[in-house]
Design brief:
Layout: E1 2-8, H1 13-23, E2 26-33, H2 44-56, E3 59-63, H3 71-82, E4 90-91, E5 96-97, E6 108-109, E7 114-115, E8 120-121, E9 126-127, E10 132-133, E11 138-139, E12 144-145, E13 150-151, E14 156-157, E15 162-163, E16 168-169, E17 174-175, E18 179-181, E19 186-187, E20 194-196, E21 205-207
Parallel strand pairs: 1-2, 1-3, 4-6, 5-7, 6-9, 7-10, 8-11, 9-12, 10-13, 11-14, 12-15, 13-16, 14-17, 15-18, 16-19, 18-21
Antiparallel strand pairs: 20-21
Pfam families: Hexapep
Protein name: Transferase family hexapeptide repeat protein
GO molecular function: transferase activity
Amino acid sequence: MKKLWLFHTGGDLKQIRHEIVRDAQYEIAGVHLLEKGGDDMPSPPIKALLAQARQDGDACFVIGDARLLNQSRLAAYMAIKAAGGRIIPLKASSASIADGVRLRENVWVDHAARVLPGVSMGANTWIMHNSELGTHCKVGSSCWIGPHCQISERATLGKNCTLGHGTVIGPDVVLPDWSTIGSNVTITHSPHTTLFIDSRFRAPVHIFNS
């Protein structure tokens, strides 16, 4: 069985481990906690591990959550990728992925989530439980789609977008990069944006109200 190294920056490690064991495609070789931020991430021991994993053909996956608009997971993903880790996508056994949809590296599709035909999804994007990506919608890299969200047909989300629980994005709506939407908000038209800068974030984000 192929080996998989997990790198943890937050989020539901227990559930993802359960899904990996249930899927039986990978054996979990180990779990490593990554420190948030800093130019020394990953640490020298992790870099040595990644070099050995690359030599052995082992896979990697970075676990994170929506805190600080994905910044911890994004930073860890970029660091592991830069260090040469072979990063794979994962999905829950109950997730539904249409034929022909490509899951890029470090994508996670949670339980009971649905990805319909023609969807394009960037790397390091997470689709949480019971959410649906409609036909021919486009989701950029490093997005976090919260539980019970509905992304309608032909909608477009830029990179690094965060959608809270129960958000609905209407057909043909376009959200720019770094958009963040609160919980239970419905967006029916491509919105005007307000630039919001916060010292916690590494880049500007657009904050939308319902």
